[in-house]
Amino acid sequence: GNISDMALHFIEKYDLVALKISSKWELRRLCQATGATALVRLGAPTPDECGFANVKQQSVGGRTVTVFENDEKSKIATLVLRASTNSVLNDLERAVDDGVHAVQMACKDGRLVYGGGA
């Protein structure tokens, strides 16, 4: 749905940000990055449920994107990959995914050299 006129009034009055996020996965990721809690009830959030991030808009590859920067101890980072073709972009995505999984495996057990070719 849309954001009501009254909600927009208070969003502007208190200098807040409102985003429409259609994916439950993206909402959970944003909450984790900002330290917030997704609420399903109507009412004011408690201070423990509120998150914090600096929000700005910038242009990336000709598209305007919303960037959340958090100086706190956030465990999430986003990589923006660009390539000339979809096949190159898919290869880049697989390479990043492989690297992230290699680090995960090395952190689980320090004795293991993941992909070391031994």
Describe this structure in words.
The chain is of the alpha+beta class and 118 residues long. It is built from three helices and two strands. It has helices spanning 5-13, 24-34, 86-108, and strands at residues 54-60, 63-69. Strands 1-2 form a two-stranded antiparallel ribbon. The longest helix is centred in the last third of the chain and has 23 residues, at 86-108.
Salient structural properties:
118 residues, extended, 12% strand, two-stranded antiparallel sheet, 36% helix, 3 helices, alpha+beta, 2 strands
Total DSSP helices: 3
Largest sheet, in brief, is:
2 strands, antiparallel
Gap between N and C termini, in Å? 55 Å
**What's the shape?**
extended
Helix amount: 25-40%
In the predicted model, the low-confidence regions spanning at least 5 consecutive residues are none
Average pLDDT metric? 82
Spell the H/E element sequence: HHEEH
C-alpha Rg (nearest Å):
19 Å
- Class per helix and strand makeup: alpha+beta
Number of E strands: 2
Strand line-up in the sheet with most strands: 1-2
- % residues in beta strands: 5-15%
